[in-house]
Amino acid sequence: MTALDTASPARPAPAGPLGDLETPDPLELLLGDPTDPGNPVGYQAFVDADEHGDFLPAGRKAMEAYGIGAEFVPTALGGRLVQADRLARVLRTVFRRDGALGLGFGAINLIASSTVWAAGDQAQRRWLADVLLGNGQTAGAITELAHGDDLARTRLTATPRGAELVLDGRKEVINNIARAHAITVLARTSTEPGNRSHSLLLVDPAAVPRDRLRFLPRFRTSGMRATHLGGVEFLECPVPASAVVGEIGDAMETVLRCFQVTKSVASSAMVGALDTMLRTVTDFTLRRRLYDRTVAELPHARAQLTAAFTDLLVCDSLATTVCRSLHVLPGQTSVYAAAAKYLVPMLAQNAADGLAVLLSARSFLREGPHAVFQKHLRDLPVAALAHSGATICQATMIPQLPRLARKSWFSSAAPDPVLFRFGEPLPELDFGRLAAGAGPDDRLIATLPAADLSGDPALRVLHGRLLEELRAQKNGWTGLPPRNRTPFAGPVAFELAERYAVLLAAAACVGVWQHNQDHPSAFVRDPAWLVCALDRLTARLGYDPVDGAREAGHQVFAELTARYAANTGFDLIGRRLC
Q: The whole model's pTM is what?
């Protein structure tokens, strides 16, 4: 409990994830204290496994004991998948310890299965659900090394032959491909150009002729060394026509819809890795003494810790809001998910780089109490690239933003507060409601014009700056020549897309603060963290620090050290850890 909490009035007991903050979540309890050197699934064990370049066997067993596959299966099929933000919190627990485990036993299952939940028939859904519920592994054979995220240039083909389709070609840099019990494959089914030339297939690798399927050598990586990135080559391999997911030719639309879910959840899950890095460096600075005081008492170190904690809160606000928008604003998340997948890894990497300076030479150590830091520092860039990189995310936003600027900014109504309220349940995730492209009503950005932040002097100034930027954005997008409104745009459009992502993060922070005033933590209800968050975001837009930000930073730092001492999460939920 912080000093602010002691003055809090009596409030009704919160529900949902805010209902029992003093008890670690079930997966956290199963994995135990990660700092215990004797814990078989602790930090040291994962660092050692990373050194050997393979999954930690005890980590794999823990995931199976928990039944991690059920997290990716809709409840109608016997799983636990209801809310995207809840799934992201589960994966954060894994990412706190090991990004390779979080990706290989977590995010990859969502990538491989979401298209089947969205477009598969009942038999495909039931079969894949049984694979995941039985602790089977999946793989999404979507990309090809020669073309990266440019899926339209896919060369692997699926050619009709009687009651079969014949797969011919290869996919590379695919997570878990040689270990998968089910593979989702993107294939070209027409030689014609355009978006109707590709199809998705759900393949059982155990059911195809072994001489028509060849697994390619593993790709080794500098980060997430335990990740098994490999390839597969189909050699005129027959699969039944019933393997097609959805209709022939509709793969691109299905992928565009489903990747919104995976981008949102993956962005949110990364917060777990940043939590560990911040916790590791906070521990160091509170224990290490220089000049007759702790490192944490030095002004530069304190400012750096405060900045990293603030950036984590910004990442959490944006990523969690975007995850909830999949339920509340499913017609808009195409642009929101891309913005989150672009900005969250960037903020996390910047924060990690600043923390590395504080840890100094220890940030390179591969053994000892701080070794997990260097592991996560190497893992972060891999996590950022997984699924879709920054340029692809910007290229996804650019064609959509001119219409949003023209039709909705300063005219759309603010969204339903449930979008931001962590404690309120949401209807089950419905993949069918997601749209391939954003509609013309940007409700999340509308949070900024609709907000009343006049009660706090610093927030009033920051709010004015954000509205000024939004007006400049509107003029910038509507004045762009046609070519700069396409993925082939020049640098000016990419810069505008980055600034839009910053504004979207600011809108998420404002909405979270406004609509969680019943949060058990007085810190979350207090405007101090919002002042720091908006001050750092407006600094990215070129503004100087606002008066009052330094004082707010003192409160944010005090909360950081209080949470460290209480061993609670650094995110906005703030649940106790093991």
A: 0.95
